């Protein structure tokens, strides 16, 4: 079930009606749990079983871990949880990738082996809810948080429908306690949540799907060498598309949760105004970057074991972060580039970071533009379906081959350029600001007019039922 569908609007209306009814809190939580299962089952009902498996195994394992002091038994219980979750994720998401690469490795050694057909459907959002439920067991094992007291609260934490399939990846200590006591949105919270829902749908339907996706698809779908202008426009369009698509989903999720009286953490903080790559990852997909930091980078040793080990930990973390996004070497390349950027930044900062230039506005703008330029190089690998497509795009972008013919028309050039420029301007303006605080300073009439214009644009935009990009992860 897509947020950007009339079916979901009807579904949300029913959920809200039950939530504001005079039922006991336990009954309302049960209705939210059932609604979350129905929301997920709308894609493929049998995959609800995977949610049940993760829920039951992690509830059982974390409860036993909390009651056990023997280190060996605690590790064994943690291993059961990790093996179950990573086993399901590995089978459904990486099984075909591993068998294909094994077959290619055998062929390279002269051993003929045909990989079996892998016609397994990828459960939507499996990477998100797997990381979320793993965080629960890991936090209990590391004694960062106690186990949930109520199975209903924990089950709802795993399946809470606003953020179930594409995040934010919520930590148990941030969401489970919210289910313990009755929650009801105030009129102000409900209004702000509805505003966020409309904003997220506007980003997705109007900007990502209506304006930017056609330009990005045309450029990355071309079979011939592209003109440098088209290669850059297609890549910049994708940079705007993926932000508006993914941040649009997160904004919708936060808004829907707020309409129900719950709080979800921000997942984006205007990343295209980032100055450097550490800053970028503090602003882009925050729930994933902090998850990787806390459960992978720090346990590997972080920056506590010398420079060489720090660079290796950064690279390994980002390579695995790339692989989390998709079972393809292009995603690994995307993660590897970000790992190299972070390592290079860490090496350069003590050597040139003290220069007064970087504290001036021109210096900050220069670093922000360099960051954005290099981030766009990585987006080529993220969007390209294979390496030949990526190389074709990069050859045009880097002026290594300028013989390509233009394929994008004037309207595509104007609309995509205006959209990307607007996104960059908004990000820079909002770099140190919070949306809620900014909007609260506007006149009520201006806020209402903007809300109405976004609703109107959503209503008249054609083809607004595409799935969110991150559903495939």
TrEMBL record:
What sections of the sequence does the record tag as coiled-coil? none
Name this polypeptide is given: Probable alginate O-acetylase
Superkingdom of the organism of origin: Bacteria
Q: Which EC number(s) does UniProt give?
A: 2.3.1.-
Which InterPro entries did the record assign?
Ac/AlaTfrase_AlgI/DltB, AlgI, MB_O-acyltransferase, MBOAT_fam
Write out the annotated subcellular location.
Cell inner membrane; Cell membrane
Q: Which organism is it from?
A: Luteimonas vadosa
* The protein's annotated pathway: Glycan biosynthesis; alginate biosynthesis
Transmembrane domains' residue ranges: 32-55, 76-97, 117-138, 150-170, 190-215, 236-262, 323-344, 365-384, 404-428, 449-471
- Signal peptide location in the record? none
Q: Write the lineage as a comma-separated list.
A: Bacteria, Pseudomonadati, Pseudomonadota, Gammaproteobacteria, Lysobacterales
The UniProt similarity line reads: Belongs to the membrane-bound acyltransferase family.
- Name where it mostly resides: membrane
Asked whether the keyword Methyltransferase is assigned, the reply is: no
Q: Its topology with respect to the membrane?
A: Multi-pass membrane protein
